[in-house]
Specification:
It is built from six helices and no strands. It is an all-alpha fold and about 270 residues long. Helix 1 packs antiparallel against helix 2 and helix 3 runs antiparallel to helix 4. The longest helix has about 80 residues. It starts with a helix and ends in a 5-residue tail after the last helix.
């Protein structure tokens, strides 16, 4: 359509130019000078016509071919051979396995380092416990057991047999009471680095061991009052037995808590 329009424009221009030239040709036949001028005009006309044709042709090519219609440059596609594909897959698998192995080794190394740090920390806490806490805890147990086993029990056995007077029994009970007094308000402080669970267990030990001392002290106070007045009633004996049992129950809980701590630290009793 654009080419047709171009030629139509060309013929229109030629018509405009040719009709005046035909008139000049008629004049040139009658006049020699006009004939020479006609030759010059004719040469110019030919040049002008060729220029117009060239412009119209160039315009048509430009209009009919847009940038979007130009063939796109195709990328060169290299087809992979089965051998090349197999080699590539083997290489990729080897790289993947090497990466996975490196990651596993790094993880194992990190875990080993973490375990080593934890073990060193645990050993440090263990040594601090053995040096600072265990002697104190062992002393609590010694006071609790020795006063009961070496003073309370022999005194009560002697009273039941009538081989001991109330005054001596009263003095023995006062000794036990004094020895138990400090144990009633135990507060054992954790060592540096002890974890949260062990701290909680240590607090349980302090509370239950304190209860054990308190219940035994209460039993001792009833005995002191009975020996002081020389009138130890059966109801008093029942209370002494009840407090003694409560003391032993609290002692068991205290020992369980401290044993759990020592097991976690790798300490054998």
């Amino acid at each position: 359509m654009a080419i047709f329009g171009g030629f139509l424009l060309l013929f229109s221009i030629l018509g405009i130019i040719l009709f005046p030239i035909l008139g000049l040709v008629s004049l040139a036949k009658k006049n020699g000078k006009a004939k020479r001028n006609f030759k010059l005009l004719g040469g110019s006309f030919v040049v002008m016509v060729l220029s117009i044709i060239l412009i119209v042709a160039t315009s048509d090519d430009t209009e009919t071919t847009s940038p979007s219609e130009k063939p796109a440059k195709q990328e060169k596609v290299v087809k992979e051979t089965p051998k090349q594909k197999a080699e590539r897959e083997v290489k990729e698998k080897a790289e993947s396995e090497a990466k996975a192995k490196a990651e596993a080794e790094a993880k194992a190394k990190a875990e080993a380092e973490a375990k080593a740090i934890a073990a060193a920390k645990k050993e440090k806490v263990k040594q601090a416990y053995l040096k600072e806490l265990k002697p104190e805890i062992d002393q609590h147990t010694k006071v609790y057991d020795d006063n009961w086993n070496k003073i309370w029990q022999p005194t009560m056995d002697a009273i039941s047999k009538g081989s001991l007077d109330y005054y001596t029994a009263y003095k023995n009970m006062q000794t036990i009471k004094n020895n138990y007094e400090n144990g009633r308000f135990l507060s054992v402080e954790p060592v540096k680095g002890m974890d949260k669970d062990d701290k909680k267990l240590l607090k349980t030990y302090s509370e239950k061991m304190g209860d054990a001392f308190s219940f035994r002290s209460m039993a001792v106070e009833i005995a002191i009052e009975g020996f002081n007045t020389g009138n130890l009633q059966p109801s008093d004996v029942d209370k002494i037995v009840s407090y003694s049992q409560m003391a032993d129950s609290s002692m068991i809980e205290a020992v369980a808590a401290i044993t759990t701590i020592e097991v976690s630290l790798g300490i054998k009793r």
